[in-house]
Design a protein that fits this description.
Length: 323
């Protein structure tokens, strides 16, 4: 009796499947300039943490205080963060890799660095001088205020990470039409509000206040800046609407009034740089709740006066069109 060999069922090899999936996901050529700009943002955050860790010492950078240098590096990181996306769109090299790398850099520069800078500020100017080796801020200190400040810094970092993760999950594409408004305070805006107040604190401390007056000013700043950081951390995970400054106000043609409103702060910054920077960042952080109050007080008339651009927020059609 002839028997035919039973043909073995050819099931796919699991190792081969994994290898093929890895080859499919392997990255192709990477655009150099946008990636270097994003890495420059990351390096600014790393350098800001380095200088902030040195505390109240004079550095070789223009003879500035180390905390001041750390705050300025956060703003330099904002510059790199503002132009890397534009350069990527200009060179038609937007990619998911760039978006993920940008988020990682933003967590360090605009999340960890401002929180650590705030901790160092409070540690330097609020800590008592009775014990030079004692720590004034941390989860294990005896002071309730020291524990609260450390918790605020941790919440700020977590809020920034959640803000970036939500942005990556909800953003439809890399087009400018999807980047005209933000849901929640953007993490660079929150970092700018905290860093600008810290830079202003250092500027006023070394230029306006005498030695006898500086102690009270140090304590006041150490009490108020963590409160601002807490509010910014809450704003990042909120649903408040914030405009994208570059895409919303600096692109395209503008009327004469818009040009004047942009030029006036720039002129003020020539004479009062630190004050203007702190005022602009604080007003932007407040623009979300103020806009909500304005829309609530004005009703539908304000929404009709300034409609949202296409692609920002879905608009439900009228009832007669749905029918």
């Amino acid at each position: 009796m002839n028997t035919t060999a039973r043909s073995k069922s050819r099931r796919p090899n699991r190792r081969q499947v994994v290898r093929d999936e890895f080859r499919r996901r392997t990255l192709g050529p990477i655009s150099v300039v946008p990636t270097l700009l994003t890495l420059g943002n990351l390096m600014c955050g790393f350098a800001a943490i380095h200088y902030a860790s040195r505390g109240d010492v004079t550095t070789a950078v223009f003879g500035w205080n180390a905390i001041t240098v750390g705050g300025c590096l956060i703003f330099l990181g904002m510059f790199f963060d503002a132009i890397d996306g534009s350069v990527a769109r200009l060179t038609r090299s937007t990619s998911d890799l760039g978006a993920q790398l940008d988020s990682i850099a933003d967590v360090v520069t605009f999340g960890v660095a401002p929180a650590f800078l705030m901790l160092q500020l409070v540690e330097t100017y609020y800590g008592t001088s009775a014990d030079a080796g004692a720590t004034a801020v941390g989860p294990g200190v005896g002071s309730v205020y020291g524990k609260a400040v450390w918790a605020i810094a941790a919440l700020f970092v977590c809020g920034g990470a959640l803000r970036l993760a939500r942005f990556n999950a909800e953003t439809v594409s890399h087009d400018e039409s999807d980047h005209r408004y933000f849901k929640g305070l953007p993490i660079p805006g929150a970092a700018g509000a905290v860093a600008s107040l810290i830079v202003l604190h250092q500027h006023l401390l070394y230029t306006r206040f005498e030695t006898t007056e500086s102690l009270a000013f140090d304590r006041i700043a150490a009490l108020t800046i963590p409160v601002i950081a807490l509010l910014c951390g809450i704003g990042m995970v909120s649903n408040l609407r914030y405009p994208h400054i570059v895409n919303r106000y600096l692109r395209g043609a503008r009327d004469f009034g818009s040009i004047v409103r942009i030029a006036l702060p720039l002129c003020a910054a020539v004479w009062f740089l630190q004050e203007t920077l702190a005022a602009a960042c604080t007003l932007y952080a407040l623009s979300g709740p103020l806009g909500l109050l304005r829309r609530g007080a004005g009703g539908d008339s304000i929404e009709a006066a300034e409609p949202a651009p296409a692609g920002d927020f879905p608009v439900e059609p009228p009832a007669e069109e749905r029918a």
